[in-house]
Amino acid sequence: MKVVLKQDVKSLGKKGELVTVSDGYARNFLFPKNLASEANAQAMSELKNKEQAEKYRIETETAAAKAAAAKIEGKTVKVVAKAGQNGKLFGSVTSKEVAAQIKADFGVELDKRKVDVEDIKSFGTYPVTVKLNHGVTASLYVQVCE
Asked: Are residues 138 and 78 in the same domain?
C-alpha cells in the first residue's frame, strides 16, 4: 500500500514522502497514530503542489541571493574605527559592523553570521566572503580607516 507520510517516521522516511508499506503496518500503526495518509488522488495532488511550491520558493530565494551578490561582488566597504598611536585598533572590526556597513552602502540586508571576516585589528584592506542563500557567495573588500 502506498502512503504519504504526515510526519517523520524512523527507518521509513521523512514528512511528505511517498512510501510503500504493508497493508497491516499502515492500518494498524501509521493510520491510528496519524503518521500517514493513504496515497489517493487528493493526497497525491497535495504532495505535488507542496513540492512545486517549495521548488518555486527556492528558485525565488536563489534569484534574490544572486541579485544581492551582483550588487556587492568586488566592491569595497569602508569601516571607520578608532586606533591608538601605533595604528592598532581599539578592539577589532566585527562581522556585525561589516554587515551594517554593507546595508548602509548597498541596501543589502545580511545576517552577521553570514559574513566571514578574519580577525581585523589594524588599518588596511581585507578580503571578506559573504554567504548568501542556497550556496550563493560574494567576495568583497573591507577597508578599515580612521
From this structure: yes
Q: pLDDT tens across 84-134, in order? A: 877 788 888 899 999 999 999 998 888 899 999 888 888 889 999 999 888
Average pLDDT over residues 23-52: 92
Which of these, 123, 146, 131, lies nearest to 72 by C-alpha position? 131
Q: Minimal CA–CA distance to 129: which of 105, 113, 145?
A: 113
CA separation for the pair 73, 61 (Å, rounded):
18
Domain boundary among 49, 65, 81: 65
**Shared-domain flag, residues 124 and 108:** yes
Instruction: Clarify whether residues 39 and 77 are in a common domain.
Output: no
The answer to whether 132 and 144 are in contact (CB under 8 A) is no
In this structure, are strands 2-5 and 115-116 parallel, antiparallel, or unpaired?
unpaired
Task: Provide the sign of the torsion angle of the four alpha carbons 54, 58, 61, 64, taken in this order.
Answer: negative
Across 19-42, average pLDDT:
94
